[in-house]
């Protein structure tokens, strides 16, 4: 039962080695590791070439963003299950073994593990707002992303159903995908810390892109326009969209970004008009 592990990376020469080693030393051995180098200009390629393991496949693309890198990995993946690992994170040795056993026993087609956080070399506790939940998590996930890519294991059937990362989003592409999946499927939670997330650096996507809520707004607009939503879920999406838009527009107006505030308001009004027309 092959598991395909996908690591997207960009200029993480100082971390990619430990991420790769944490996959290749898993107690579960039947895996392929696909590392997609998204146009790195540092020593990433040299570090990857130093691994002598036939299960590792390194591929290279021009810089296209993390969503495109993960999707390329998904296109190349041949496993029954797919797992993701960010290139600055790493797994504990039994991560795949224990998560596979959990999924076989529980019947979930997607699950995540608990995680430890390392910030600037020190272990910190995730805040209460980052608490993970199990089951039908769609409503809870609208406010913020509650699924960590490095913790995820999912059945490849989801990929064949079209659940891919949205390459038009430079950030929050994971928020978008987990929302779309959790509309149709419950998400399992293995309550064991098996993933270690390292952060606190300025080069991380979540820290280098200003105004992340802009991309969450876009994801919610796409869901409203592209998904057939039950009335109660549509109401939840609209509520989250209006609140995030209100905060984002107010922030733009406060900072004198009046054109951006007007642009988002226009997109919001257009979406709401389309929703109202469909309901008539």
Q: What is the straight-line distance between the termini?
A: 49 Å
Domain unit count: 2
By oligomeric state, this entry counts as single chain
Question: What structural category characterises the helix and strand content?
Answer: alpha/beta
Shape: globular
CATH hierarchy: architecture of the largest domain: Alpha-Beta Complex
Q: Strand count, sense and closure of the main sheet?
A: 9 strands, mixed
- Overall average pLDDT: 92
CATH topology of the largest domain: Spore Coat Polysaccharide Biosynthesis Protein SpsA, Chain A
CATH class of the largest domain: Alpha Beta
Helix content: 40-55%
- Can you count the helices? 11
Please report the total strand number as a whole number: 9
What is the CATH homology-level superfamily of the largest domain? Answer: Spore Coat Polysaccharide Biosynthesis Protein SpsA, Chain A
Q: pLDDT under 50 segments (min length 5)?
A: none
Can you characterise this structure?
The protein has 280 residues and is α/β, with parallel strands linked by helices. It folds into 2 domains: 3-208, Spore Coat Polysaccharide Biosynthesis Protein SpsA, Chain A, CATH 3.90.550.10; 213-279. 44% of the residues lie in helices and 19% in strands. The protein is built from 11 helices and 9 strands. The protein has helices spanning 16-24, 44-49, 66-76, 95-106, 138-141, 157-160, 173-184, 205-208, 213-226, 231-254, 258-279, and strands at 3-9, 31-37, 56-60, 81-84, 90-91, 110-119, 122-124, 152-155, 188-199. Strands 1, 2, 3, 4, 5, 6, 7, 8 and 9 form a 9-stranded mixed beta sheet that branches. Helix 9 (213-226) packs antiparallel against helix 10 and helix 10 (231-254) packs antiparallel against helix 11 (258-279). The longest helix is centred in the last third of the chain and has 24 residues, at 231-254. The radius of gyration is 19 Å and the shape is globular. The N and C termini lie far apart (49 Å). The mean pLDDT is 92.
């Amino acid at each position: 039962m092959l598991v395909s592990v996908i690591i997207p990376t960009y200029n993480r020469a100082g971390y990619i080695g430990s991420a790769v080693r944490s996959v290749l030393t898993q107690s579960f051995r039947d895996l392929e590791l696909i590392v997609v180098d998204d146009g790195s200009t540092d020593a990433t390629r040299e570090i990857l070439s130093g691994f002598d393991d036939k299960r590792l496949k390194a591929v290279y693309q021009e810089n296209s963003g993390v969503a495109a890198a993960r999707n390329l990995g998904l296109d190349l993946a041949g496993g029954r299950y797919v797992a993701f690992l960010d290139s600055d994170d790493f797994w504990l040795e039994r991560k795949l073994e224990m998560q596979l056993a959990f999924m076989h026993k529980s019947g979930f087609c997607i699950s995540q593990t608990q995680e430890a956080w390392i910030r600037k070399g020190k272990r910190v506790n995730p805040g209460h707002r980052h608490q993970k939940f199990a089951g039908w998590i769609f409503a809870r996930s609208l406010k913020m992303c509650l699924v960590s890519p490095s913790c995820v294991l999912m059945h490849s059937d989801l990929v064949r159903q079209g659940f891919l990362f949205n390459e038009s989003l430079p950030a929050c592409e994971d928020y978008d995908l987990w929302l779309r999946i959790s509309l149709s499927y419950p998400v399992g939670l293995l309550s064991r810390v098996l993933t270690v997330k390292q952060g606190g650096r300025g080069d991380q996507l979540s820290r280098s892109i200003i105004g992340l809520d802009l991309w969450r707004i876009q994801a919610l607009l796409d869901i409203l326009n592209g998904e057939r939503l039950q009335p109660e879920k549509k109401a939840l999406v609209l509520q989250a969209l209006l609140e995030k838009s209100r905060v984002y527009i107010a922030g733009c107006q406060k900072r004198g970004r009046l054109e951006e505030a007007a642009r988002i308001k226009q997109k919001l009004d257009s979406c709401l008009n389309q929703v109202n027309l469909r309901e008539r």
